[in-house]
Amino acid sequence: MVRNLIVILGDQLSFEISSLEKIQKNDDKILMMEVSNEIEYANHHKKKLVLILSAMRHFADELKKNEFDVTYVEFDKSKENFTKELEHQCKKFNPKTIKITHPSEYRVLKEVEKWEKLLDIPVTILEDTRFFCKIDEFAEWANSRKDLKMENFYQKMRKKYKILIDEKEKPIGGKWNYDIKNRKRLPKNHPKIPLPLICKPDKITQRVITQLKKEFTKHFGDLEPFWFATTKKDALESLDDFIKNRLEFFGPYEDAMKEKEKFLYHSVLSIYLNIGLLNPHDVIQKVLQKKDLPIESIEGFVRQILGWREYVRGIYWHYMPKYNQTNFFNAKNKIPNFYWNGETKMNCMKNCINQTKEEAYAHHIQRLMITGNFALIAGIEPKQICDWYLSVYADAFEWVELPNTHGMILYADGGILGSKPYAASGNYINKMSDYCKNCEYDVKVKNGKNACPFNYLYWNFFLKNQKKLEKNPRLWTVFSTIRNMSEDKKKQIRSDSGKFLKTM
Ligand SMILES: Cc1cc2nc3c(=O)[nH]c(=O)nc-3n(C[C@H](O)[C@H](O)[C@H](O)COP(=O)(O)OP(=O)(O)OC[C@H]3O[C@@H](n4cnc5c(N)ncnc54)[C@H](O)[C@@H]3O)c2cc1C
Ligand code: SF4
To answer: Can you give the CATH number for the domain in which 181 is found?
Structure first.
């Protein structure tokens, strides 16, 4: 008889996961399951599926090499969902208890919470200790405050973990935040930027690719060339490669965009962090060792992981299940087909979407200021846009995708996460990228057939939502311009926007 049956999920691929902490090799069994519901609940990018399935299979092999007793269930149509498969395995092994680390997504947690009653076996759900901030700790912080600014949370985490902090609890370098130094445009003749580490698919990955080619032809995106790391060893090499080749300029060019540079100085590590191949504590410690690099790069990077990553997770668990139910602007437009096929004349959108199709990756500013900004000002229904982001990126799991999409880009939560909507006109895109020079639209033209759609949609968005937003002090300049705008101009903006939205 098995003492503990330890269930390891596809994003818990780490020897340090809490469910393995007290494992006894002779008495306990590990169960890992590939089930169709997890593969099919979203139109996941094919590269995302290869990443997760291959990393799971590699991790199971590692566990077996370390003499753990592992049952690995490979995908076939009869393996419907975790519960059915677990029921089946429990009949075989008759475990005394079931153990699992807290699932990262609400949907899965609700499924796990039913197991004890359904199977009549005690189930222990353990804290996910990979994160810096516990769910309860975030809730305590959130309940004690009027507003939930990320910056305040981030400073609290810096102090708690003594990261970039001196003996007097003051920030190293004198400032908490070097955001102001993170906004440089990439100069015209900037040398070619080193690409992230390319990992050649091994036999395990190749087998997953062959299986997917047969079974999942309808999923979004390009399956090959597949180059992601699928083991901890290769993910650590990817981290070293980032620190050596790109971290130095991560800070200054964090907000830049360039047509032929898909990754710029970004780390491309979220894909490994989110499934457990990298531990965020280790990543931060390694980055902090680079004391000779500019503070705006070190602090900028730490802020993303210790600040934003932890903060969005906190928001997710604090507000679920209601978080995705709101629609502050009552946005109802349908997501245009070009989000799936890239067929649009808008060069910035075409580039970001085609890159997403190829790589299952876009960096933060592409997600925020191009595809996200467009969805906001075009009034696309939040649920449809959230489903898109959850599907198309290899790092997409609801706990991190939803707050970024529903909250940060769409402001559908009414301002829990952001203090104002991140709407921007073509001017911003032109300032931070080189997309406009190859576009059929003219970024300098505000209205009419050749005008950049971001220009009139931007003003249309604020005109439409004036009542909801005009009291926001951060939008004072926007509404002061609107107050001085002629009725003819407003009419033109509405007419151009109406015509454009009809074509979608
Ligand atoms: C609309 C939208 C949807 C997003 N969906 C996801 C998602 O599904 N999964 C995901 O991991 N990130 C998501 N992000 C956050 C961010 O865009 C990605 O983490 C980042 O682009 C991943 O690339 P990178 O590893 O090169 O990041 P880098 O720019 O190198 O940043 C370093 C790390 O910081 C963390 N990070 C940075 N920004 C954020 C953020 N806003 N929220 C959480 N973590 C952050 C990531 O772990 C990332 O690997 C989303 C952002 C937006 C605007
Ligand atoms: S002109 Fe407008 S649509 Fe074209 S690339 Fe620039 S911002 Fe995008």
So the answer is: 1.25.40.80
The alpha-helical segments, DSSP class H, found in 216-260 are 232-245, 247-250
- Higher pLDDT, residue 348 or 1: 348
Q: Is the dihedral of CA 439, 443, 445, 448 positive or negative?
A: positive
- What is the span of the domain harbouring residue 487? 338-503
Write the pLDDT tens digit of every residue in 8-20: 999 999 999 999 9
- For the chain, the average pLDDT equals 97
Atom of ligand 1 nearest to the CA of 273: 47
Pick the last residue of a domain from 126, 157, 183: 126
- Asked whether residue 84 falls in the same domain as residue 147, the answer is no
Question: Which residues pair with residue 5 across a beta bridge?
Answer: 29, 98
pLDDT of 446 reads 98
Most informative mutation of 370, 404, 411 for ligand 1 (most atoms within 8 A of CB): 404
Question: 15 exposed, middle or buried (CB, 10 Å; 0-12, 13-18, 19+)?
Answer: middle
The answer to whether residue 148 sits within a structural domain is yes
* Ligand 2 touching residue 458 (CB < 6 A): no
C-alpha span between 88 and 336 (Å, rounded): 42
| pTM attached to this predicted model | 0.97
Does residue 360 surpass a pLDDT of 90? yes
Q: Three-state secondary structure along 453-502?
A: HHHHHHHHHHHHCHHHHCCCHHHHHHHHHHHCCCHHHHHHHHHHHHHHHH
Identify the residue whose C-alpha is closest to ligand 1 atom 48: 270
The domain that contains 94 carries what CATH number? 3.40.50.620
- Residue 69 above 90 pLDDT? yes
Q: Indicate if ligand 1 lies below 6 Å from the C-beta of 364.
A: yes
pLDDT at 116: 98
Is 370 inside a domain boundary? yes
Do residues 13 and 59 touch, judged by C-beta distance below 8 A? Answer: yes
